[in-house]
From TrEMBL, chain A:
GO terms for cellular component: ATP-binding cassette (ABC) transporter complex. This is ABC transporter ATP-binding protein. Belongs to the ABC transporter superfamily. Signal peptide: none annotated. Its main location: membrane. The lineage of its organism: Archaea, Thermoproteota, Thermoprotei, Thermofilales, Thermofilaceae.
From TrEMBL, chain B:
The chain crosses the membrane at residues 7-27, 47-74, 95-121, 133-152, 159-179, 199-217, 224-241. Pfam families: QueT. It comes from the Archaea. It comes from Thermofilum pendens. This is QueT transporter family protein. The keyword Transcription regulation does not apply. Keywords: Membrane, Transmembrane, Transmembrane helix. Coiled coil: none annotated.
Automatic annotation (TrEMBL), chain C:
The chain crosses the membrane at residues 20-38, 45-68, 74-98, 105-127, 147-165, 238-256. The lineage of its organism: Archaea, Thermoproteota, Thermoprotei, Thermofilales, Thermofilaceae. CDD domains: EcfT. It holds the Pfam family CbiQ. Its main location: membrane. This is Energy-coupling factor transporter transmembrane protein EcfT. InterPro entries: ABC/ECF_trnsptr_transmembrane. It is a multi-pass membrane protein. It is found in: Membrane. GO terms for cellular component: plasma membrane. Keywords: Membrane, Transmembrane, Transmembrane helix.
Length: 281, 281, 257
C-alpha cells in the first residue's frame, strides 16, 4: 500500500442546530489501496464522518467542522467539495434517489459529463466501467425499472466513471434485500481485489468485512474507539460488544468456549475456525 | 387584543367566508341554470361585466408578474428601496436548491396528476387539493420552491396531455401563486394569528386573484393561438381558477403549513435559515 | 393512464432529432392557428397528428384515451362556437336551444382542431424524446442549465413519486380514509394524511438527492458535455422538408386560397 490517501486529525463536527458534537476528536489515516470498514451502532457518527470526507459537511449540509481533513491530496475543510470533484466517489444508502435519469448509460455518463470531459473520453469511461462490472446488457435499460440491488450497482458504476481515487460507501446495502446485498457486496469485493481502490465503507455485515477489509474501525458516540486489522479488533469480543457491534459468529462461539475454560485463540473467519478445529479443505 | 392580531383574525374570517360564499354562489347558480351555471355564477358575471377593466388590470398584472418572475430568476428581488440581490437566482443555486426545485416539481406534478379533483357538483370539478402546496413550497423553500411549483404545473400539463400555448401562462401563473406568500407573508410558521392572517391575505385572496387574472389574460391575449372564446376564458376558467385557489388554500394550506413547517425547519430546509438576502443591487 | 412521459421505443419518431420534432410540433400549431376558422382546412393537420401518434409507438390504449379526451373538447367547442355563429350560414341541426349552421360547424371544428392538434403534437414530442435530449434542447435554446436540469430530474423522478402517492393513498384507504365522503371541506381536509407523508418523504429525499448531485460533480464545470448529442441526419432533413411543405401548404390554403 502506498502513500496516505485520507488523513483526519482531531476532527470535531456537528450539524447546524445541534448542540452536541456528532464527531468528537476523530483521528484516522487510510493508505492508498487500503479498504477500511467503519462499524458502530446507528447514530455513532459513521455517516457524518463520510460526509465530512466527501466535503459535503459543511459545504453542502450546514454545520460546524473543526480539525484537519485531507482526502486525495485536497484539504477538504479549506477547499470544499468542488475540489474533490472527480477524486472522491460516494455511494449512499438509498438507491431510489441515486438514479436520476432514464437510462443506465446516462447514469454512468453523468459525472464525467458534469466534469466537462471530452465526449470520446466520457464514452470510453462508460464502456470500460460497464465491461468491468458486466453491465453491458444494462446500458440501455431504464434504471427506474431495476431492483434496489441493481440500482446500487448502477450508482457505484456511476461513481467509478469519474475514476475516483477514493470510494466512500455509506451503508450501501442497508435498504436492500438479500439478493441485492449479495450483488453489491460482491462488487465491492471485486473493486478491492481487482482494482486496488482506496475504499472506506460503513457496513454492518461483519462476516463480509472480515474477509475483505484491510482494517476495521469501530465508532461509538462520535469517537473512534477501536481500530486495527479485523483479527486485532474482533478478537476483543467483549469490548466490541460493549460498543454495540456484533462480532463475527465464529468469534462469539470461540469467546464463549474460552470463557468456559477452553484454551483458544479467537478466530474472526470461518476458515480460521476450521483450521483450529483441525478440519478445513 | 392588539391591532395586528385583530386584523389577522379578520383576515382569516373573511378568507373562510369568501371560500364558503364561492361554494354557495356556485350552488345557487347551478340551481338557477343547470345547463350552464357559469351564466348565473356571480364571479363569472363580475369578470365578464367588468371586462374592459379586467383586461386592463390583467395586462398590468401580466407585465408586472412576468418582470418579477424574470428578475427573481436572475437573482434580484424588488423591494421598497429598489432591487436587491436575493441570493436565490438560478445561477447561484447550490445542489440543495436544485434538489428542492426538482423534488418540489416532481411532488407537485405527481400530486396534481395522481390525485383526483374533488367533484363537488357535476360540472364543477376544479377543486384540486394538491394546489394547497403551491404557496407552502414558496414560503418554505423560497425561489427554488416557486420554480418547482411552476415546473410541476407544467409537468402536470404534459403528463395530462394538456400542454399547449396556454401552459406558458400557467407556468408563470403558478410561480406567482407560490411567490406572493413567500414575498409578503413575514411569518411562515402558521403558529401565530399574524402568520395565519397574513397568509389568508396573500396566500389565499391575493394570489388567487393574481393567478386567475394572469393566466386568463394570457389565454385572452393568445386567443388567436389557443382557441378559447373570451366568455369561456373569463366566464368559466377565471372563476374556476379563482374559486379553486381560494377554497383549497383557505381550507387545506394552513393545516398543512402548521404540520409541515416544523418538519421543514427541523430538516434545515427553510429558506431563511439557508439564504441571506443581500444589499441593494 | 399518464401521457406525455417518455416511453422507451424504437419508432420512427423516436429516431428523429428533437429539433426536427419540435419544429414539426410548432408547424402543427401554426397550421392549426391559420385554419382555426375552417375545420375542413384544419382536418388534414388533425389527420397528420393521428398518423404521428401511430408512428410514435405510443400504444393503442393511450392513443384512444387522448382521442376520447379530445372528443370532450369537440362537444364543448361545438356548443360554444357553433352557438356564437348560429346566425350565420345555413342551419344544419336545430335541437331546442342548439342551432348549428354550416358556418358554425366549420368554425367549431376549426377551433376544436386548434385546441387538440397542438396537444397531440406535444404528446408525441414528449413521449418520444428522452429527458436527456429535452435538457440538451432547452440549453441550446438558452435556458440556464440548472433550470433545464431541474425539469429533467423532475420528469425522471415523476413515475416514482406517482407510485409513492398511490401507495400512500392505498395505505390510508386501508386504514379507513374515505376521500369521497363528507362535505367539501371534510373531503379537502381528508387529503392531509395523503399529502403529509408524501412531503415528509420529499424532505428526506432532498438532502439525499443534493448529496448525490454534489457527488456526481454537478455544477463543477462551466460547460457540461453532452456525450449523446442528437445527430441531424438525412432522415431529419427529409422529415423537416416534407413537414414544412405540408404545413406551409395548409397555412397558404387556409389564409389565401
Amino acid at each position: 500500500m502506498g502513500s496516505v490517501a485520507v488523513a483526519v486529525r482531531n476532527l470535531w463536527a456537528k450539524y447546524v442546530g445541534s448542540e452536541d458534537w456528532v464527531l468528537r476528536g476523530v483521528n484516522l489515516e487510510v493508505r492508498e489501496g487500503e479498504m477500511l470498514v467503519l462499524m458502530g451502532p446507528s447514530g455513532c457518527g459513521k455517516s457524518t464522518l463520510l460526509k465530512v470526507l466527501a466535503g459535503l459537511l459543511p459545504w453542502v449540509i450546514p454545520g460546524t467542522v473543526e480539525g484537519t481533513v485531507h482526502v486525495a491530496g485536497v484539504d477538504v475543510l479549506k477547499a470544499g467539495y468542488r475540489e474533490l470533484a472527480g477524486k472522491v466517489g460516494v455511494v449512499y444508502q438509498n438507491p431510489e434517489v441515486q438514479v436520476v435519469t432514464r437510462s443506465v448509460f446516462e447514469e454512468l455518463a453523468m459525472a464525467p459529463e458534469n466534469l466537462g470531459l471530452p465526449k470520446e473520453e466520457v464514452r470510453a469511461r462508460v464502456e470500460s466501467v460497464a465491461k468491468a462490472l458486466r453491465l453491458e446488457d444494462y446500458l440501455f435499460k431504464d434504471p427506474q425499472s431495476l431492483s434496489g440491488g441493481e440500482k446500487q450497482l448502477i450508482a457505484i458504476a456511476g461513481v467509478l466513471t469519474m475514476k475516483p481515487k477514493v470510494l466512500l460507501l455509506d451503508e450501501p446495502t442497508s435498504m436492500l434485500d438479500h439478493f441485492g446485498t449479495k450483488l453489491v457486496l460482491d462488487l465491492i469485493t471485486q473493486l478491492k481485489r481487482e482494482y486496488g481502490l482506496t475504499i472506506i465503507a460503513a457496513e454492518h455485515r461483519v462476516e463480509w468485512a472480515v474477509e475483505v477489509a484491510d482494517r476495521v474501525a469501530v465508532m461509538s458516540d462520535g469517537a473512534l474507539v477501536l481500530e486495527g486489522t479485523p483479527s486485532e479488533v474482533f478478537s476483543r469480543v467483549e469490548e466490541v460488544q460493549r460498543y454495540g457491534v456484533r462480532p463475527p459468529g465464529v468469534s462469539e462461539v470461540a469467546y464463549s468456549l474460552a470463557r468456559m475454560g477452553f484454551n483458544l485463540k479467537i478466530p474472526v473467519r470461518l476458515s480460521e475456525m476450521e483450521e483450529m478445529l483441525g478440519g478445513g479443505r | 387584543m392588539t391591532k395586528a392580531r385583530t386584523l389577522s383574525i379578520v383576515a382569516v374570517v373573511v378568507g373562510l367566508a369568501i371560500a364558503a360564499f364561492i361554494i354557495y354562489a356556485f350552488y345557487e347558480a347551478l340551481t338557477i341554470n343547470p345547463q350552464n351555471p357559469f351564466e348565473a355564477f356571480i364571479i363569472s358575471k363580475a369578470f365578464l361585466g367588468a371586462y374592459p377593466v379586467v383586461y386592463a388590470v390583467g395586462a398590468v398584472i401580466w407585465i408586472l408578474g412576468t418582470v418579477v418572475f424574470l428578475l427573481e430568476l436572475t437573482g434580484y428581488t424588488p423591494s421598497l428601496r429598489g432591487l436587491r440581490k436575493s441570493g436565490m437566482g438560478v445561477a447561484s443555486w447550490s445542489v440543495i436548491d436544485l434538489a428542492l426545485a426538482a423534488l418540489s416539481a416532481a411532488v407537485y406534478g405527481a400530486l396534481l396528476a395522481a390525485t383526483a379533483p374533488l367533484v363537488i357538483f357535476p360540472g364543477f370539478t376544479w377543486l384540486r387539493p394538491a394546489n394547497s402546496l403551491a404557496p407552502l413550497f414558496g414560503m418554505f423553500f423560497g425561489i427554488p420552491g416557486c420554480v418547482g411549483v411552476a415546473i410541476g404545473n407544467l409537468i402536470a400539463d404534459i403528463v395530462g396531455g394538456y400542454f399547449g400555448v396556454g401552459s406558458i401562462g400557467g407556468f408563470v401563473g403558478n410561480f406567482l401563486i407560490a411567490y406572493l406568500p413567500y414575498k409578503f407573508v413575514r411569518d411562515h410558521s402558521f403558529s401565530t394569528s399574524t402568520s395565519i392572517g397574513e397568509f389568508y391575505i396573500w396566500g389565499v385572496l391575493v394570489q388567487a386573484f393574481v393567478s386567475a387574472v394572469y393566466i386568463c389574460w394570457w389565454l385572452d391575449f393568445m386567443q388567436w393561438a389557443v382557441g378559447l372564446p373570451i366568455f369561456v376564458t373569463w366566464g368559466v376558467i377565471a372563476p374556476v381558477i379563482l374559486s379553486n385557489n381560494v377554497v383549497v388554500n383557505a381550507v387545506l394550506s394552513p393545516i398543512l403549513g402548521r404540520i409541515l413547517y416544523p418538519l421543514v425547519k427541523g430538516r434545515g430546509l427553510y429558506w431563511k435559515d439557508r439564504v441571506r438576502v443581500g444589499t441593494t443591487a | 393512464m399518464l401521457s406525455g412521459i417518455y416511453v422507451e421505443g424504437r419508432s420512427v419518431f423516436h429516431s428523429l432529432d428533437p429539433r426536427a420534432k419540435l419544429l414539426w410540433a410548432l408547424l402543427v400549431l401554426a397550421a392549426s392557428i391559420a385554419a382555426q376558422f375552417n375545420g375542413l382546412k384544419s382536418l388534414p393537420v388533425f389527420i397528420s397528428t393521428l398518423i404521428a401518434l401511430s408512428l410514435s409507438g405510443i400504444g393503442a390504449g393511450l392513443a384512444a384515451l387522448l382521442i376520447f379526451n379530445a372528443s370532450v373538447f369537440l362537444l364543448v367547442t361545438t356548443l360554444v362556437w357553433a352557438g356564437m355563429y348560429a346566425g350565420q350560414g345555413t342551419p344544419l341541426i336545430t335541437l331546442g336551444f342548439l342551432r348549428v349552421t354550416d358556418v358554425g360547424l366549420l368554425v367549431a371544428s376549426g377551433k376544436f382542431f386548434l385546441i387538440v392538434n397542438p396537444i397531440l403534437a406535444f404528446v408525441v414530442f414528449f413521449t418520444t424524446t428522452k429527458p436527456y435530449y429535452i435538457s440538451w434542447t432547452l440549453e441550446k435554446a438558452g435556458v440556464p442549465s440548472k433550470l433545464a436540469f431541474s425539469f429533467v430530474i423532475a420528469l425522471s423522478l415523476l413515475p416514482g413519486v406517482i407510485r409513492a402517492v398511490r401507495d400512500v393513498t392505498d395505505v390510508q384507504k386501508l386504514r379507513g380514509l374515505s376521500l369521497d365522503k363528507g362535505s367539501i371541506f371534510e373531503r379537502l381536509r381528508k387529503h392531509v394524511p395523503v399529502i403529509v407523508p408524501v412531503i415528509s418523504r420529499l424532505l428526506s429525499d432532498v438532502w439525499d438527492l443534493s448529496m448525490v448531485l454534489a457527488s456526481r460533480c454537478f455544477g463543477v464545470s462551466r460547460r457540461r458535455t453532452y456525450v449523446e448529442e442528437p445527430r441531424w441526419t438525412r432522415r431529419d432533413t427529409i422529415f423537416t422538408l416534407v413537414s414544412m411543405a405540408f404545413y406551409l401548404g395548409v397555412i397558404a390554403w387556409a389564409l389565401w386560397l
